[in-house]
Specification:
762 residues; Methane Monooxygenase Hydroxylase, Chain G, domain 1; two-stranded antiparallel sheet; globular
Length: 762
């Protein structure tokens, strides 16, 4: 029996590794968003700052099982075997839940998830115990600490309201005073902001970071023989004032004499600080349960009692994690930060919702978002009527968005927001979290950082009339997801612990196998998506600003389209020849991806046109016409695939042998004389003469397809000819003709433009 529990313990630590990976993937948005969004550092440097913070935070973590000592459940009311089942259910649920949110690209709270998983699993286990005894269900409160659940729910509400409001207010005041002309302000003004910002961040490190670490209990003679934690508590005002003075003079010196941008320093330090605090304080959300399980196993194995007889009251005490576990956890967290594609997806959601400029809106509007925006516009109109003209003029001047710097390659790659907003996002989040921690208020790090970002976005007028409904809808979706986190965590945690308790060891193995399949599939899909640009020649959004650049980049995309169309066309003909629905579905999947990418190019036409120089109007016409032809090409091929799929899936008669033979001849002829040449010519950016050769083959290719169509017309008069077969065959030939025509139109259009451009140069 002891071996079974040892096996469960090993499984728990394996699950902890998985939990660390999915947890960091979700929480990375907390500290990466400002730095990535402002683009003041390279991505590599941002990751270095964050990695150092995570590593130091993990090593210096107190390693205490926070959720246990806060009393989600009363350990003394449970036995060892019951506790192990609870812990197992919690870890399984946590991995599934966080991986689900990561796949959606939505940030959620690891603290809320772990607390409600513990709550759900312990409630169900308590109900089982009560049901198997003579006790009444009213005694459930003896097993569970309901106060903690209420605190967490209040924490969600407080986080949403306070962080959004204060973030918006601070951003508006800061923008009104400092405007966008940060580089033109006097050193004294920037130094004041730098002093406040850096002092706030360091205060955050002291309260949130040091106070939660083992260093907090170390006594120093310099501090009148008191420990760090007590000294900070007793001299908080003095520490804060000295902090500001030191960093004010530091800021002034580096601005005035070294000409260093203080805002970059704020963003760098802030990223490090939030990463450190995350690792130092949230690490317990991932390894706290396995550590407690290890301590429980140790205590039980030394007791000599049966697993169903050993009470777990000792878990009410602090359970410290060994240093090697903290170090190992830190390494896993850093590696996850560098290599997790899902972390980037979660960050992208936050950046899209906070962008100062037009982006592809991910979320659709809904009735609630439209109502909130309408109400916001109503209030704004009232305020505008009340304010004097002079004040309105000053506000307009301060909030006037400058033209983006030409150092950015394209309008698409410019920063989501400027250095001031990035700094305020970091500072306000740090201050709120440190303040809440000092007063033991249950504010979530994720909720605070996200809502601060949304509040500053609104205050900075990032949510314009064209984007507000979609941005608000996105925020509402994220907030709704937070509440679902609690509900799902509670429910699934309870279901899993019930299944394990009733089904025993074999039920657990089935659940673990299910988790392995789900997470493995999710990881595979995520990895596949991150590599799709290389595997499938993904179409690239052009960042060109001149006519010549448009032509070159368009040529590269045409090569990609031609190659993918060629591959899909081959899959189609192969599927029809073999009458295999699997191949047709593969073709449909590929053409749908291509269609989505073409749609993305269309959606970005506005950004493309804005990025062009005024003298390159003709480039817009060229690009738009080219997209029209590519769109027609993809629609024609999709039409064939749809018709072929319906034909095969409905078990209609296979195409006749001569029909298949003719399609193979058409496929080979079109590939050799058109598609292969188009792909090759555009890929190597061939001379104009090669495009002429392609155009010369037009009549031969079209005539060949027409000949097969005529043959089928004659064959259709044959009594053996079947309606469904003839209809499908006709459709394939006609649409193939359209595909060929679209390809020739693309080549001809490109050829005429290049020829004209070369004549102008000569």
């Amino acid at each position: 029996m002891e071996n079974i529990y040892l096996f469960l313990l090993i499984v728990l630590f394996i699950l902890a590794i998985g939990d660390l990976i999915v947890g960091v993937s979700n929480d990375a948005v907390n500290f990466l968003n400002p730095a990535i969004g402002s683009k003041v550092f390279s991505f590599k440097n941002i990751m270095i700052f964050a990695s150092i913070g995570i590593a130091l935070g993990a090593v210096s973590s107190s390693g205490m099982m926070e959720v246990a000592r806060k009393g989600i459940f009363n350990p003394s009311s449970f036995y060892f075997d019951e506790i192990i089942f609870i812990f197992m259910a919690v870890m399984i649920t946590d991995i599934l839940l966080l991986d689900f949110f990561n796949s959606l690209g939505l940030p959620t709270s690891t603290t809320v998830s772990i607390v409600f998983e513990l709550l759900g699993a312990s409630v169900v286990m308590a109900l089982i115990k009560i049901n198997n005894s003579t006790k009444d269900f009213s005694e459930l409160s003896n097993y569970i600490n309901n106060e903690k659940a209420i605190q967490i729910v209040l924490g969600i509400l407080l986080s949403v309201f306070i962080a959004f409001t204060i973030g918006g207010l601070v951003q508006w005041i800061s923008r009104f005073i400092l405007s966008y002309k940060l580089d033109k302000l006097k050193p004294e003004i920037n130094s004041i902001f730098g002093g406040i910002a850096i002092a706030s961040i360091f205060n955050f490190i002291l309260i949130k970071g040091i106070k939660g670490s083992p260093f907090a209990e170390v006594k120093f003679a310099l501090l009148n023989n008191s420990d760090v934690s007590s000294f900070i508590d007793e001299n908080n005002l003095i520490v804060s004032v000295l902090n500001f003075i030191i960093w004010y003079f530091f800021s002034y010196v580096i601005i005035r004499f070294f000409k260093i941008d203080i805002y970059k320093i704020i963003i760098g330090i802030g990223t490090f600080a939030l990463a450190l605090a995350f690792a130092g304080n949230d690490l317990v959300n991932f390894i706290g349960v396995p550590v407690a399980a290890f301590q429980s196993y140790e205590a039980w194995s030394n007791s000599g009692l049966a697993a169903s007889e050993f009470e777990m009251g000792f878990l009410s005490n602090k359970v410290a994690a060994p240093t090697f576990l903290l170090l190992g956890s830190g390494i896993i967290m850093v590696l996850t930060l560098w290599f997790s594609s899902k972390a980037k997806r979660v960050v992208k959601t936050s950046l899209d919702l906070s962008s100062q400029y037009e982006t592809k809106e991910r979320f659709k509007s809904n009735a609630l978002s439209r109502s909130l925006v309408s109400f916001g516009i109503f209030l704004n109109n009232i305020v505008r009527k009340i304010l004097p003209k002079s004040i309105k003029k000053s506000i307009k001047k301060s909030f006037k968005t400058p033209k983006y710097s030409k150092i950015y390659v394209s309008i698409i790659n410019r920063p989501s927001f400027d250095k001031l907003r990035a700094s305020i996002n970091l500072v306000v989040a740090a201050v709120l979290i440190s303040f809440a921690t000092s007063f033991k208020l249950p504010l979530s790090t994720t909720y605070v950082t996200f809502m601060v970002t949304m509040g500053t976005s609104l205050a900075d007028r990032a949510w314009g009339t064209d984007s507000a409904v979609y941005r608000v809808s996105g925020v509402l979706n994220v907030i709704l997801g937070w509440f679902f986190t609690a509900i799902i965590a509670f429910t699934v945690g309870g279901i899993i612990v019930f299944t394990i308790f009733q089904g025993g060891f074999y039920a657990l193995l089935i659940i673990l196998l299910f988790v392995l399949i789900i997470v493995g599939k999710s990881y595979y899909n995520s990895t596949k998506q991150s590599k799709i640009i290389f595997e499938e020649n993904k179409l690239l959004i052009t960042n060109a600003s001149t006519y010549e650049e448009v032509i070159i980049q368009s040529g590269a995309n045409i090569a990609r389209v031609a190659e993918r169309i060629n591959n899909i066309f081959d899959i189609l003909i192969d599927g029809l020849a073999k009458n295999e629905v699997k191949l047709i579905k593969k073709g449909l999947k590929n053409i749908n991806k291509l269609e989505i990418e073409v749609d993305e190019l269309r959606e970005n036409i506005f950004f493309f046109i804005k990025n062009l120089k005024k003298s390159s109007v003709s480039a817009s016409k060229f690009y738009i016409k080219l997209l029209d032809e590519v769109e027609d090409l993809t629609k024609d091929l999709k039409n064939i695939l749809d018709k072929s799929f319906n034909h095969i899936i409905n078990n209609h008669k296979k195409l006749k042998l001569n029909q298949i033979r003719n399609l193979l001849l058409v496929q080979n002829f079109v590939n050799q004389n058109l598609l292969n040449k188009v792909n090759k010519s555009f890929k190597k950016n061939s001379d104009i003469e090669e495009f002429e050769e392609i155009l010369i083959s037009k009549d031969r290719v079209i005539d060949m397809i027409n000949k097969k169509i005529e043959d089928q017309i004659i064959a259709s008069k044959d009594e053996e000819s079947r309606l469904k077969n003839s209809k499908l065959y006709f459709n394939v030939l006609l649409r193939t003709k359209d595909i060929a025509s679209s390809n020739y139109n693309i080549v001809e259009h490109y050829y005429n433009v290049v020829k004209k451009l070369k004549e102008v140069v000569i």
